[in-house]
UniProtKB/TrEMBL annotation:
The keyword Cell membrane applies. It comes from the Bacteria. HAMAP family: FtsA. Its main location: membrane. Self-interacts. Interacts with FtsZ. The gene is ftsA. The lineage of its organism: Bacteria, Pseudomonadati, Bacteroidota, Cytophagia, Cytophagales. One of its GO terms (biological process) is FtsZ-dependent cytokinesis. This is Cell division protein FtsA. Keywords: Cell cycle, Cell division, Cell membrane, Membrane. Residues 415-428 have a biased composition (Gly residues). It comes from Larkinella knui. Residues 414-441 are annotated as: Disordered.
Amino acid sequence: MIPKQEEIIVGLDIGSTKVCAVAGRLIRNNDHARLDVLGVGKAVSKGVTKGSVVNIGQTVEAINRAVEEAAGQANIDIHVVNVSFSGQNVTARRQHGSITRTSPGDEVVADDIDHLVGDMYRSVLPAGAEIVHVLPMDFTVDSESNIDYPVGRIGVKLEADFQVITAQTSSASYTRKCIQRSRSVSSQKEPLENDKFLLAPLASALAVLTDEEKHAGVALVDIGGGTTEIAIYHKNVLRHVAVVPYAGNSLTADLEIGCRVLPTQAELLKTKFGSADPSDFRLNEVVAVPNLSGRPPKDILLKNVALVIEARLKEIAAMVQAEIIRSGYRDKLVGGVVLTGGTASISGIERIFERVTGLDVRIGFPDQLEHNVKADLVSDPAFATAVGLVWAGFKRLDDRIPLQHAVLHPVSGNGHLGSGPGYGGNGNNGKEPVKGKEKEKSGGRILKWFQNFLNDDIGKELGPDDRYNQ
């Protein structure tokens, strides 16, 4: 039986090595929820470098292939997607905000948090930057600090520390243009629409981290193709975000130089024979690699391949360790480190990160999936972001944020904010997701005022060469 299309969420992960689309719906069994994967599409990504789109045409072509494949498997129309965003230009800064309540004798209500979060979106930014996420950490009501959730408390002054995540406007604009120029499966003439715009490691966290780990303290390390992204949680709150500009493609480049082979052969060496532990191979264990035309194959020692991979992963692990220390949560990560992303599948990577960080390490696989053939396809660290984008249609990044701000993201190319979960289709010719309409009604005047403000201010395209340096 084909599910109702308004129940389907589509996640689109635009990565440096692949573009992946996953369509899924939520299945509830009593209090337990699982994701039913309906369709998976994947295409080689040639237009993205270090997480940022550099060639719109090539990226659009990959998006179209991935979305069409997922739509065909799920037997649905796709015109709205949740989109990942990453890149070395993504930065995060801690910022303090406060408001004085007009009704100090009354209890703090959700609208007060809404007001406080809205003020953060009005922050003055460096030229060429825009806000992607505003996530609260700890609240203060009058003199009482370190409050997890202030609603219900009585006080005059409401304050909070926030993680304000920003991206370079030009880079975000490239991603939005790719979505606008991609074809909707429901109508080849209509462009795709992006609903939610999520930072990739935050999406991955929805797919691979448990609530217990987030509360105990955990560092999610998403090692993709172009960048390694770090998201640190403690007491269920995002505490630190960082991006390291080295990842799986760096390993491939090292093998290309160290083993003196072509880039495609270096990638095959990494994916088929790659290991981070040289002791896995004997000294005389070799693999024959095709050489240039007219020349005999070249024998490559697998121990040398492992030595090259080990050296680069040690460097990446050291950079991750430096960010963990810089966050100030090094001694609070009871949950240790969770590695995900395509590079996390390399044998022996856990031991390297355990030695460098001194923390417990596990590999993060997308879980809580309904067992079927398509779920087996995405039960791999490489699909963590795409699966997390589907979960983003059913979960909030932070349950403490009022609904109208929980769905906000940067202004899209047509100057309007998206709202509501991203659905695969809803029978209205791809014009607007059904639940998006419902949330627009429930947002009321506050959301309309906020949309107008962003359209007039933050949505302006600023200088492309400036970026925030932490």
